[in-house]
Design goal:
The protein is mainly alpha-helical. Helices cover 78% and strands 0% of the residues.
């Protein structure tokens, strides 16, 4: 569940980056120039944490299932 939440947070941060870029870039020549590039960095970090957490938990589940 926690890994899924991190992946969801990553998707929200990633989409909010482009939404904010579209809002601030309306009427400018380069609409994807945005001074808030940290949203993309945080989105990638959250995605890495989420996927790692999912992989680790699935590995632990399979390992526990083999023992039983």
């Amino acid at each position: 569940m926690t890994g899924t939440i991190f992946c969801f947070i990553s998707a929200m941060l990633y989409s909010s980056y482009y939404l904010c870029a579209a809002i601030t870039g309306a009427g400018q020549l380069n609409p994807f120039y945005a001074p808030f590039g940290s949203l993309k960095v945080f989105a990638v970090i959250a995605l890495i944490i989420g996927v790692a957490y999912l992989i680790i938990s699935e590995y632990g589940y399979l390992k526990k299932k083999k023992k039983a």
